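User: tokens in, sequence out, please.
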């Protein structure tokens, strides 16, 4: 099957501080989003890369591509009101029904090659696959009235990206009306009635959100 990657990069980076959106911040001399796209290109040189960006950020991205001589072929889709709408816009550029489509946070540049490969492999067989990691902290549940209790952490997983699906399935799932319960692509596909398979993720696959995350990123590189 042909492969696609929709890199969702619509964040404003408010928690990161500064005027530059977090997906464009350089880590060790290269913008985050470029490192993210290179990770998937390393997995499959023929992968179709789609970058979803707010309209008002697209010229800046093109400028960065020139400045850093970034030549990986990719298409640009317009960011939407929510992540759901952004992914749907990116999905509109996937012309094939018989293909595999991964959706990945543009600010997760440290996903491992093994995790990428396993997500696409399992999605090809099962239709839908997402990477998860164990919860290592103690977890407490808090009720509406403020009461709390410890819950067994081995019953929970932390979800990462890429979340990979057969294109035909993802397109049908995204034809559903939007609801606030759609927090990621897996929740959209599950609402459509399809089971999502879990793949072991890698702990380094962090989502860069705060200045502390940037320090971790430099250490990882």
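Assistant: Sequence out:
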């Amino acid at each position: 099957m042909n492969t696609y990657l929709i890199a969702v990069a619509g964040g404003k980076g408010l928690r990161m501080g500064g005027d530059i959106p977090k997906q464009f911040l350089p880590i060790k001399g290269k913008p985050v989003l470029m490192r993210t796209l290179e990770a998937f290109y390393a997995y499959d040189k023929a992968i179709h890369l789609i970058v979803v960006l707010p309209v008002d950020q697209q010229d800046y991205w093109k400028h960065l591509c020139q400045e850093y001589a970034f030549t990986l072929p990719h298409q640009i889709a317009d960011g939407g009101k929510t992540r759901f709408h952004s992914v749907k816009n990116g999905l509109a550029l996937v012309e094939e029904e018989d293909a595999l489509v991964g959706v990945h946070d543009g600010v997760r540049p440290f996903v491992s090659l093994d995790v990428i490969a396993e997500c696409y492999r399992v999605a090809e067989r099962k239709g839908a696959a997402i990477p998860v990691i164990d919860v290592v902290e103690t977890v407490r549940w808090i009720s509406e009235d403020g009461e709390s209790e410890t819950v067994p952490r081995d019953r929970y997983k932390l979800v990462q990206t890429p979340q990979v699906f057969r294109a035909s399935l993802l397109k049908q799932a995204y034809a559903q009306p939007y609801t606030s319960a759609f927090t990621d692509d897996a929740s959209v596909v599950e609402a459509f009635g399809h089971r999502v398979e879990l793949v072991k993720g890698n702990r380094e696959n962090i989502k860069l959100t705060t200045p502390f995350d940037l320090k971790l990123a430099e250490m990882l590189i």
